[in-house]
Amino acid sequence: MAVDACERRLTRAQRKAAYAAGADKDPAGDEAIKRITDQRDRMCACADAACAAAVAAEWKALERASEPALHDPYTQRRFNVIDAERLACQEKLGSLR
């Protein structure tokens, strides 16, 4: 793949700078990140397990809708971090299945 061949030619410092600047970012992934961030914020705002369960019920549809954007490594990394935060809030409320 051409991108991989180019990336291999970069020095470590160049790769680090490109990553920090979001060079591997897919703009289409921004919408997926907005949606999961909203999901995380709503989950973390829940005060009880019933609220968390209601928010969690929407998760599968959101995850399926976000699938195309998750092929981008930058978006995938961001998605995973936000999802871990969402899950931590859900675990605190004891609403994991």
Question: How would you describe this protein?
Answer:
The chain is mainly α and 97 residues long. It has one domain. The protein has six helices and no strands.
Defining key terms:
elongated; mainly alpha
- Give the oligomeric state: single chain
Percent strand equals under 5%
Largest sheet: none
Shape: elongated
Query: What percent of the residues sit in helical stretches (DSSP H or I)?
Result: over 70%
Uncertain runs are: none
- Give the number of DSSP strands: 0
Q: Rg, please?
A: 17 Å
Number of domains: 1
Summarize the structure.
With 97 residues, this protein is mainly alpha-helical. It contains six helices and no strands.
Write the layout of secondary structure elements.
Elements: H1 2-9, H2 12-21, H3 29-45, H4 49-57, H5 59-66, H6 73-92
Helix pairs in contact: 3-4, 3-5, 3-6
